[in-house]
Design a protein that fits this description.
This protein is an alpha/beta fold. It is built from seven helices and ten strands. Bound molecules: adenosine-5'-diphosphate. The site of adenosine-5'-diphosphate has 13 residues, from strand 2 and helix 1.
Length: about 230
């Protein structure tokens, strides 16, 4: 479902080679951790997937779409096939939980009827049905991140990309968030999680792709962090 073929990214402004000759294949339904210390190239890899950045060379194919060849006007349509979760939640503070989910659907053209059916459903999947009419600041950090996960699910994406989703959360809450992502993955959605959280990676025994200096230095089917790695 996702392929990088000889992908290199050089940032023009600084001439930094953020990624060099990356070859990567992720199958539909996989759960993948992306690890690596700061500056390794994780965000760049994610931005190439979301088409926020353009590869300097090579090809990126996601769900049969050649992302490297997308025209600017095609990018918003392509992004609808992705669900994004961020470290800082990025909820709309003046909208309730359910309005946050509804808004994400409205901007991609969902009808009110579709929203009425789907929004409560995705909130149920993250255990937030009871808090649908709360504002984000009336929720804990973990709950806010669950809203963000519901929002990412709202448009039924093929791929969920979570960039440090537990970076602002306590360890016990982090585990809970990962359980929700794992459950979503179990129902068939491909999930990629960029993280520094050693405990979580070691506990979950998922595929681990480690990036360092712009290259993939390790790709383990059921990996963890080894003791000599410090990310
Ligand atoms: P990570 O997410 O693993 O911390 P990044 O992908 O952000 O790593 O960064 C990889 C390299 O690319 C770093 O050397 C960083 O300074 C550089 N870089 C990232 N974004 C930009 C940018 N917009 N312009 C120039 N250089 C960048």
């Amino acid at each position: 479902m996702l392929q990088f073929r000889n992908v290199t990214k050089v940032y023009d402004n600084t001439n930094v080679t953020a990624l060099e000759n990356i070859n990567l294949e992720i199958e539909k339904g996989e759960f993948v951790f992306l690890v690596g210390h700061s500056g390794a190239g994780k965000s760049t890899l994610i931005k190439l997937i979301t088409a926020e950045e353009k590869a300097t060379s090579g090809e990126i194919i996601i769900n049969d779409i050649n992302v490297t060849k997308l025209k600017s006007k095609e990018i918003p349509f392509y992004r609808r096939t992705l669900g994004m979760v961020f470290q800082d939640f990025r909820l709309l503070e003046n909208k309730t939980v359910i309005e946050n989910v509804a808004f994400a659907m409205k901007v991609v053209g969902a009808t009110n009827r579709q929203i009425r059916r789907r929004a409560p459903d995705v909130l149920g999947r993250v255990g937030l049905s009871q808090k649908a009419h709360f504002l984000p600041d009336q929720l804990s950090g973990g709950e806010q991140q669950r809203v963000a996960i519901a929002r990412a699910l709202a448009n039924n994406p093929n791929l969920i990309i979570a960039d440090e989703p537990t970076g602002n959360l306590d360890p016990d809450i982090s585990g809970e968030i990962m359980q929700y992502l794992e459950e979503i993955n179990r129902s068939g959605t491909t999930v990629i999680v960029a993280t520094h959280d050693k405990d979580i990676v070691n506990r979950m025994h998922k595929r681990v792709i480690a990036v360092d200096g712009g290259s993939i230095v390790r790709d383990d089917e059921r990996g963890g962090y080894s003791d000599d790695e410090e990310f």
